[in-house]
Fold:
Amino acid sequence: MPEFPDPAAHPRVRFVDSFAALVAAPWADGVNAYCWRRTLPGDFGEVVARLGQREGLTDLDADILRALPLSPAGRAAAEVLCSDLHLLQEQGLEPLLDCFDAYPRDEAAGAVATDVYSFHADRAPVPAATFLCTYFGAPSEGVDNAQVRRHVEIPETRAALRREFGGPEGPEFEAFLTEHCYDLHYAPLPEARPYSFGLGHLWRIAIAHPGCPVPPCVHRAPPTVPGQTRRLLLIS
Structure:
């Protein structure tokens, strides 16, 4: 699998060369993912190592990063992280910078798992987008909308969800699917070829919201592999 999607192979992905262009790029012509490709300076692995072996998820901010005892390479990486946080905060966003081993799994999953390891789309009640960047560890993955099918549209899965709901098809059943986010999760088709978001690249992806002119970008957290390094991820 290539590190970056080829725009010719993934017509919904476009690349930009600045943060300003990333923010301003329009949702049009079916494009639902923009990527600011970057080669970042610094040693992000050192930042992760200096945080120590903390269990669960560690939220980071500029104060924590600047207090770490780092080499010049580690300091350069920390300054990149602080800069990216600041860029998104200036847009009125509330980005999260996290270091973690793995996200929680949907242990109680029935017919459809709704954790972030499932291909899914994000949703908001107002126009919005998701920004994300993996600096260290396994990167996030995306897949073309034509290569997936919503779980709620697969007859046997829908029947299982209807049994879970305990009632017939209708507005109440549709509300049940939305309430539990079942309608946001997708099954890859046999020919699906997920692409990697890569390391150090800042992405802006479309989410489901009223009036969005393009389909939401379908993506997921990478599958957890035993013994893998922790991830350092920015998301907003």
Notes: Residues 1-5 have pLDDT under 50 and may be disordered.
